[in-house]
Amino acid sequence: MSKVFFDIGLSLDGFIAGENRSPQNPMGGVAPAIHQWMFNQKAFWEHLKTTGGEEDTEDGDRIRQVFARTGAYIMGKRMFEEGEVSWPEDLFMAPVYVLTHEKREPWVQKGSTTFYFINDGMESAFEKARASAGKKDIRVQGGANLIWQYFNGGYIDEFTIHVAPVLLGSGIRFFDGIDRTTFSLKTIGASHTPLVSHLTYSVGR
């Protein structure tokens, strides 16, 4: 049975993004600090259809596995706007459902990525993603506000956080938006490298 999950990077003090986010300043400029472990991996750049990275380790296998398990994505409008200007063609290799008030025709890319713009709410986006994903999983991509909505609404089955050993001090603190009274967590995976700690939890209600 397919699962609904999210997979995000965090600073050690719990921030998912910095301040002053915009398409010209994605994630508030903190991506290099939070995601350096990922940028070091050849697997990340392979997915972008280019060369880069100095390592091909278990971290790279983790990147490949996340993309391979995902049959559909759900995304918030703000994250889409920050990425639209710079993402390469067919980055997601699956349908992406963007929650937005903007009415817009689907953006069909070369390959298997199509962005669909959903105007009638999170349940509608979820049902469409579920129909598209088949036996694969649905990834709630972000940003933070969208993940909060799906988490607090009881949709999330599992999540992984990649904790970078950096302190940001300000920005969007991820767990402040989670209703702590509605769920329990069970650790189902943990591993560590010098640049990151990977922690995976199943969610009970």
From TrEMBL:
Provide the leader sequence positions.
none
Which InterPro entries does the record cross-reference, listed alphabetically?
DHFR-like_dom_sf, RibDG_C, Riboflavin_Biosynth_HTPR
Q: Which GO terms describe its molecular function?
A: 5-amino-6-(5-phosphoribosylamino)uracil reductase activity
The domain of life for this entry's organism is: Bacteria
Q: What is this protein called?
A: Deaminase
Example GO biological process term? riboflavin biosynthetic process
**Domain Bacterial bifunctional deaminase-reductase C-terminal intervals:** 3-186
